[in-house]
Amino acid sequence: MEAVVFVFSLLDCCALIFLSVYFIITLSDLECDYINARSCCSKLNKWVIPELIGHAIVTVLMLISLHWFIFLLNLPVATWNIYRMILALIND
């Protein structure tokens, strides 16, 4: 069970790192005026929910598998993503 949790966490973290690099590249294109703000937002907004789900799954898995230190490391990021999503829902 423990190995499966860590393998899934590794794959999820790799996907989240890839997503962060994609965000940086897209924002860099916006800065250099290769794309306009509307298309940049439409490209990035569709990946916010998967990012939230990815962080939440890893955090819950670490809580369930009783890895407290890793859970406490992931908790601020998951909390920030949930807070950001709640603010986005309130402002819409």
UniProtKB/TrEMBL annotation:
<dbReference type="GO" id="GO:0016192">
    <property type="term" value="P:vesicle-mediated transport"/>
</dbReference>
<dbReference type="GO" id="GO:0016020">
    <property type="term" value="C:membrane"/>
</dbReference>
<dbReference type="Pfam" id="PF03311">
    <property type="entry name" value="Cornichon"/>
</dbReference>
<keyword id="KW-0472">Membrane</keyword>
<protein>
    <submittedName>
        <fullName>Cornichon family member 4</fullName>
    </submittedName>
</protein>
<dbReference type="InterPro" id="IPR003377">
    <property type="entry name" value="Cornichon"/>
</dbReference>
<feature type="transmembrane region" description="Helical">
    <location>
        <begin position="52"/>
        <end position="75"/>
    </location>
</feature>
<keyword id="KW-1133">Transmembrane helix</keyword>
<keyword id="KW-0812">Transmembrane</keyword>
<comment type="similarity">
    <text>Belongs to the cornichon family.</text>
</comment>
<feature type="transmembrane region" description="Helical">
    <location>
        <begin position="5"/>
        <end position="25"/>
    </location>
</feature>
